[in-house]
Design a protein that fits this description.
This protein has a domain at 44-134. It is 32% helix and 10% strand. The protein has 4 helices and 4 strands. Strands 1-2 form a two-stranded antiparallel sheet.
Length: 134
């Protein structure tokens, strides 16, 4: 059986992820939930995959965990400004963060909540209505 390296550095038996990373990984949404487009059409082409690997090699620890004094392997690269909003920053290192799976999920959830508030007709992010009432 061939051996492989998990992104966290653990050697696995012919698996893409070690048992620990596999348990932390969230299931990927179905393609229909992602607007029906493949990864390349959404901006994740060969250049992105190459940059992603370089980022993870340069910053192998989760940046948010590391800021809290926690040592956790980074396995995902997060766009601070989403590709949909700023496609010009898609391959800019300054717009990318290396994160562990839980921190990446948290960042995506915070973004979704902020977008919901922005799209709500009567609310702003500070919780006040546009007329200044709570």
């Amino acid at each position: 059986m061939s051996k492989r390296f998990c992104p966290c550095g653990t050697i696995t038996d012919n698996a893409r992820l070690c048992d620990r990373c596999e348990q932390q990984r969230e299931p990927e949404p179905r393609r229909s939930a992602r607007d029906g487009r493949g990864s390349t059409a959404r901006g994740y082409d060969r250049r992105w995959r190459k940059l992603r690997l370089l980022m993870l090699a340069d910053q192998p620890l989760c940046e948010l965990c590391e800021a809290e004094g926690i040592v956790e392997a980074a396995v995902e690269v997060h766009h601070v400004q989403p590709i949909a909003q700023r496609p010009d920053l898609r391959l800019e290192r300054g717009n990318l963060m290396c994160l562990c799976v839980p921190c990446h999920a948290e960042q995506d959830e915070q973004r979704r909540r902020a977008e919901q508030l922005d799209n709500h007709p009567g609310l702003r992010r500070n919780g006040r209505s546009r007329e200044g009432k709570r």
